[in-house]
Specification:
The protein contains 2 helices and 24 strands. It is mostly beta strands. It starts with a helix and ends with a strand. One of its GO terms (molecular function) is efflux transmembrane transporter activity.
Length: 294
Amino acid sequence: MKKILFILPVILFSCTQNNNNTDAPTPRTAITITHVSQGVINDSITLSAITSYLNKSSITSPIPAYVTKVLIEPGSKVQAGQTIFRLESKERNALGLDDHNTTGIIDMKASASGIITLVKQQAGDYLTEGTILCEIANQNSLVFEINVPYEYTQYAGTGKICNITLPDGKVLNAQIASPMASMNVVSQSQLYKAKANVGFLPEGLIATVSILKNASISSAQLLPRQAVQCDVSMQRYWIMRLANDSLAVKQEVEIGNGDKNNIEIVSPVLSPSERIVLDGSYAMGDSTLVKIIK
């Protein structure tokens, strides 16, 4: 009798556990939602560009001498004939002549009007004959050199307008000129030059170039990138839309242009009120129970 009484609570406890397991709620994936919007996305390629001056001239020392004055700095605008350096011959320096005697003093003048891009010598430096003092560039000869991969050369035709973004965020409109005739063997890219209406920029400045590939229509459907999923081959794309407050179902889509934030949905046509899963849709099945969070 005692054994029967002992077993009875165990059976009752097991039944209680089974009931609890049966009543456990089905897990749901926490998601946030978004809606389709209307806008324009221009499909473009992004490349790097480097500033260069095509027309430059070097000022050199005509004799062995010492630099006594430097009257320019990088970025200075100069006119042809303007004094930019003062030199003292090594003989004058050895004799220690005073300032009233101008023997051996040489004023170096700019050979052309332009912008100083490089100053190589400072006051007190000793120069041998032919030493470069500075370089003067024609401001109008500034170009942005762009190495365009061969597969993108179809988008970089002569006269094509592109956008150039400087490191400080300033955006310039530029026009692409004819490419060089040869290819870079290693990178398989072709050198293009683009001109922009801009003031002085140091040579060797790295900028970002955006070249338009295809323009989007004005009424394109847009979704955030994280709302659109794809397979490993990037051939099939889909979104997860809400059938009701607790069920998300897969909807295959055809995409168009895209940028770093949004993707154009070409088809199907989505209602502005359609609820699309924004966060939480990764690795979902064809249908998934969900829980909307704010």
